[in-house]
Write a structure and sequence with these properties.
The complex is a heterodimer of chains A (253) and B (253). Chain A has 253 residues and is of the alpha/beta class. Chain A has 10 helices and 10 strands. Chain A has a single domain, classed as P-loop containing nucleotide triphosphate hydrolases (Rossmann fold). Helix content of chain A is 35%, strand content 24%. The mean pLDDT of chain A is 90. Classes of the chains: A alpha/beta (253), B mainly alpha (253).
Chain lengths: 253, 253
């Protein structure tokens, strides 16, 4: 497809104010290279979700640009942008709106005009990659929360996105589901931007992290180094869980 | 299709009636009801024949009589009105067991009762042999306005989610010592209903966001195309055609 040099995601000078005048983003700049897994950290109310909604053009910036694999986000390429940017929302009940898992996963590709055997194949591949192929004909509300979150990831994977954006992927998951999801995310060959305040999870999955605080990128670096910087963490209301020391964690790869 | 979404009304089976495509069944039931309603009420034998036709369908569908009769009880509140008619209608009177009854009223009651029962029986058979999900596909195939089909589809998907939310709110109320006793507590219940409405409304917005993110532009993509062969159509339409013959006889005899 594209060459490896074009970054998956490029955000430049992004500023946004809600219609009521409340400013949420004050010039955000960052780049995510192809194949990277990056965590976007920030306290509640830092503008994380607002930023996410800019990535596929649901919200449009007052100033600045978002570019996905070389394609600027804007009215002209909206359909293509939404195919390239796969957002997994926080509540899987919001994301899974079709009567069965299979139809839900098929929704995105079908909306893009795919049908027949090709569509079936796409659905099967996506469900297999999250280990949910056996649940294709189940209605979403008969699944456990962890299973629903995995199906939500599959609904987005079915669109073969350039970048996978996860909004608080670990929220409400028990430790086993959390680990299962981590294994799945590690096994995927796709660029990931993970929005979270679950710091150990970010450290586990993402070599690089950004800190979004008060509408700007306050720090950008290796996740382990950022989490070990006490002053930085305190300044942005980020706290590690009790007893967790990022320096003591040895990362595999 | 999967066995997951089994509604209470649905009776799982593999009969020839179960196997018919949903839109042919919908069309057949609709045509049958129209024919029944347009039969003159004086042709009492015709209604007997209609009932026999439905019994044949039930036999082919392997729906037991007891199941069918129990489901028919749903009709009771609606026909209570019919029972009153002989007592209140004007016109010629007859005396049955010492009670003055109106002849017109008796015919009216018979009319409502017979046609209503046949209509409900046909619908119960349809519901017992067709899954909800399939019914929606059938309606979509019959070119019902897509908005209506979408609303029905969301109702199925989110009915349980909202019931669950309602249950959690009730538990939260009761955990704080609230018990609905009498009219003074209705205010609290009304406020809960209002809160539930707002929560559901907000969920609707989030669901819409998730849909738009996956390329929704106003119409649902067709994922499962239902088709019917000529043989299946003629098999399904055997019921209304037989009924039509009975109806025509009813008018001419």
């Amino acid at each position: 497809m594209d060459d490896a040099v074009t970054p998956s995601l490029e955000v430049a000078g992004l500023a946004f104010a809600y219609p009521d005048g409340q400013q949420a983003l004050f010039g955000v700049d960052f780049t995510v290279a192809r194949g990277e897994r990056v965590a976007l950290l920030g306290p509640n109310g830092a503008g994380k979700t607002t930023l996410v909604l800019h990535l596929n053009g649901i919200l449009t910036a007052g100033a600045g640009t978002v570019t996905v694999a070389g394609l600027p986000v804007g009215k002209r390429h909206m359909a293509e942008i939404r195919r390239r940017v796969g957002i997994v929302f926080q509540d899987p009940d919001d994301q899974l709106f079709m009567p069965t898992v299979r139809e839900d996963v098929a929704f995105g590709p079908a909306a893009a005009g795919m049908k027949g055997a090709e569509l079936e194949q796409r659905v099967r591949t996506a469900l297999e990659s999250v280990g949910m192929a056996d649940f294709a004909d189940r209605p979403p509300h008969h699944l456990s929360f962890g299973q629903r979150r995995r199906v939500a990831v599959a609904t987005v994977l079915a669109m073969e996105p350039e970048i996978l954006v996860l909004d608080e992927p670990s929220s409400n998951l028990d430790p086993a589901s959390r680990r299962e999801l981590a294994d799945i995310l590690r096994s995927l060959d796709v660029t990931v931007l993970m929005v979270t305040h679950d710091l150990p999870y970010a450290l586990e999955l993402c070599p690089r992290a950004l800190i979004l605080s008060e509408g700007v990128i306050a720090a950008d670096g290796k996740t382990g180094e950022l989490l070990s910087d006490d002053a930085l963490m305190r300044a942005h209301r980020l706290e590690l869980p009790f007893g967790f020391d990022p320096r003591s964690v040895t990362m595999g790869a | 299709m999967g066995a997951g979404h089994a509604h209470r009304l649905y009776r799982h089976g593999h009969s020839p009636v179960h196997a018919l495509p949903p839109h042919t069944k919908l069309a057949a039931v609709f045509a049958f009801v129209v024919v029944v309603v347009s039969t003159p009420r004086e042709a009492m034998w015709a209604f007997g024949l209609y009932a026999a036709l439905l019994a044949c369908v039930a036999y082919t569908a392997r729906v037991p009589a007891g199941f069918l009769l129990r489901r028919l009880l749903i009709e009771v509140p609606f026909v209570a009105f019919a029972v009153l008619m002989p007592f209140v209608a004007e016109g010629d009177q007859v005396t049955v067991l010492g009670v003055q009854l109106s002849v017109n009223g008796l015919w009216g009651a018979w009319n409502v009762l017979a046609k209503g029962t046949l209509g409900v029986a046909a619908s119960v058979l349809l519901a017992a042999t067709t899954e909800l999900r399939e019914l929606l596909l059938g309606l979509q195939r019959l070119k019902l306005p897509p908005l209506l089909v979408q609303i029905a589809s969301f109702m199925i998907r989110y009915g349980d989610v909202i019931t669950d939310e309602m249950r959690r709110m009730r538990i939260a109320r009761e955990s704080r010592g609230f018990e609905a006793r009498g009219i003074r507590h209705w205010g609290v219940l009304a406020k809960s209903a209002g809160a539930l409405f707002i929560r559901s409304y907000e969920r609707g917005e989030r669901v819409h966001l998730a849909m738009v993110s996956r390329g929704y532009t106003g119409s649902m993509p067709v994922i499962d195309e239902v088709t019917a062969s000529r043989a299946q159509w003629s098999y399904a339409l055997a019921l209304p055609c037989a009924a039509l013959v009975v109806c025509l006889l009813g008018w001419t005899l």
